[in-house]
Amino acid sequence: MKRRDFIKTMGINALSVATGSALLASCGNSSAGSSKAAEQLPSFGLITGSGGQWHPEGVVEGLKQIAAWGYTELEGGGGRGGGLSPEEMNGLLSSLGLVRLIGSANIQSLIGDESELKTNLERALNIGQKYVACYWPWPGSPGTTIDEWKVVADNLNRGGRICHSEGIQLIYHNHDFEFYPIEDHIPFDVLLPLLDPVVGIELDLYWIVKGGKSAPEYLTKYPGRYPVLHVKDMPADVKCGVAPTDFSTLTESDFAPIGSGVIDFPEIFKTNNISGAKHFMVEADKPPGGTAEFLELSAKYLSKVSF
Fold first, then answer.
1. Parallel, antiparallel or unpaired: strands 45-48 and 17-18
2. How far is it, in rounded angstroms, from Cα 16 to Cα 256?
3. Please, which residues bridge with residue 17 across strands?
4. Could you give the count of Cα atoms lying within 13 Å of 208 in the half-sphere of its Cβ?
5. Which residue numbers in the chain have pLDDT < 70?
6. Are the C-beta atoms of 31 and 264 separated by less than 8 Å?
7. Nearest-CA neighbor of 229 among 305, 118, 296, 151?
8. Each residue's pLDDT tens digit, 182-207
9. What is the pTM of this model?
10. What does residue 35 show for φ and ψ, rounded to 5 degrees?
11. Residue 278 backbone phi and psi in degrees, to 5
12. Which domains are assigned to the chain?
């Protein structure tokens, strides 16, 4: 199953929420102490669009609950929801302190007609989004040669420069297959040096760990390239660094509420000043315990975590 099929259409309409060092008990390493004064996250948000509808009273009450839990930023589509007009939705979000921060851009839009892309970017800017994320840089399955990854860099650079010219930043979201060798090279390490600095990375902390790599190592290896982190956790029995994931096999047992699994988030967040991370978006492809419980527990952890 392709990841682009696995990710459902994002949008507030459904209010469906999907929601390092890997420094894992199961995948190695542990946190080190520091004499530096403890810091906390400036804010955190969530990605809408996959994870299941969850609030019985609909979108409006769901948004109110999200804000009450402490989420302040949204990643996903714009438009109307809950029977509200776009203007009414904007007013509701503003009253709740919720910001629509990140939209989406598929690879076809980035390499297709420039005027159409600019129209989409104008729409994103009009609802306040500062970033558009490309979650799957392929017209089909991931490439199996390094030359194909170099084409990905060219395509992201083209789209990224157009986005930049319109006042919005393109960010690329990784999975785990970027960290498995192809032709004796790690695709992520081929891609990053080729990307124009205007293209940022939305590093998914779960997937880099699942790929058997250290999130802190990569966050410091390419300083200033990661404006957004996707924050999600995994149970101790998830196997890392074995083989690229077949997304169709994922279940709730592959994920954990943030702070209850084995990813060492304090150690990761210590790199924020180096990595450039400013935004921390909660995600779970298959939220354990149901979306509402997952979001509440994750928010409680992120509102208190210090590093």
1. antiparallel
2. 18
3. 48
4. 26
5. 1-36, 49-53, 77-81
6. yes
7. 305
8. 999 999 999 999 999 999 999 999 99
9. 0.89
10. -90, -5
11. -120, -25
12. 19-24+41-287 (3.20.20.150)
